[in-house]
Amino acid sequence: MTRWLTIMLVLSCFVQAQGPPKYHTGKLIQMESVGCVIAETRQDTAPASVVNCEEYVLEAEGVLFHFRLRDPKHAVQLPVGHTAQYRIDQGHFFLKVEKKEQEFVVVSMEPRESKVPAVRSAKVNHLQ
């Protein structure tokens, strides 16, 4: 009997561990173009190049996420002003918009005290 219970317990752990990922909901409230450094993966010692990439702000419950696409070479426009689903899994940030999931790099996080994101003096966006 205890052997049977042990087997059932192990099987239920596997089933529960492989369930669908849990998403949280947030709102994309801002996008700005910033300079990103891209390191080339070549054998020679080529310097890293700077390109423009989009940095987004996601307003979630209690926190504002500032994030960029992991690979700026494959830029994608996210719908600012719309809701998006996100999940954090083992230190990786995934965003799901219109049934597509992509991995992003979180640049910074800040506590959300109001519905308006904090304006950083170092960056001026096109909306100001």
Keywords:
mainly beta; 128 residues; six-stranded antiparallel barrel; globular
Write up what this structure looks like.
- With 128 residues, this protein is mainly beta.
- The protein has one domain (22-111).
- It has one helix at residues 2-17; strands spanning 24-38, 49-60, 63-69, 83-89, 92-97, 100-111.
Beta-strand percent range = over 45%
What profile does the largest beta sheet have?
A: 6 strands, antiparallel, barrel
Query: In percent, how helical is the residue content?
Result: 10-25%
Low-confidence stretches: none
What class do helices, strands and sheet pairing give?
Answer: mainly beta
Mean pLDDT over the full residue set = 76
Helix count from the secondary structure assignment: 1
How are the strands of the biggest sheet laid out side by side?
A: 1-2-3-6-5-4
Number of strands: 6
Spell out the helices and strands N to C. Answer: HEEEEEE
Give the total of domains: 1
Given the C-alpha coordinates, what overall shape results?
globular
C-alpha-based Rg, rounded: 20 Å
Distance between the termini: 70 Å
Structure at a glance:
This protein is mainly β. The chain has one helix at 2-17, and strands at residues 24-38, 49-60, 63-69, 83-89, 92-97, 100-111.
Give the topology.
Layout: H1 2-17, E1 24-38, E2 49-60, E3 63-69, E4 83-89, E5 92-97, E6 100-111
Antiparallel strand pairs: 1-2, 1-4, 2-3, 3-6, 4-5, 5-6
